[in-house]
Amino acid sequence: MEKYTKICKVSEIPENKRGRKFELEDGTEIAVFKVAEKFYAVMNTCPHNQTHVLYEGKIEDLYLECPVHGWRFNLETGMTHPECPELSSKLEIFKTKVENDELFVEVKRKKWFI
After folding, report:
1. Which of 19, 27, 37, 93 is deepest in the core (most CB within 10 A)?
2. CA pair distance 1, 38, nearest whole angstrom
């Protein structure tokens, strides 16, 4: 089951610079970026070294660069840059939508089995 959660006003996300960090209800940290009037939300944890600083990463050609070791991830797919085929980690991404000047991210609810 999936639902969207309100994160902030769209004006609170800087354009083409650094992102913003947010914490979801379940404690998950996400990083949100605005590039060319489009919003991208990703897990704030680098799958390479488990640091929680991706919101501080630089963006170039829709690739987010981790500020710790420089691994680059595509903001649309989560895949690593093609120049780094030996890197197999994938960054978790979240769908976004804008309604009434507010930004929402899709949060996938965990399924519990009994």
Report:
1. 19
2. 25
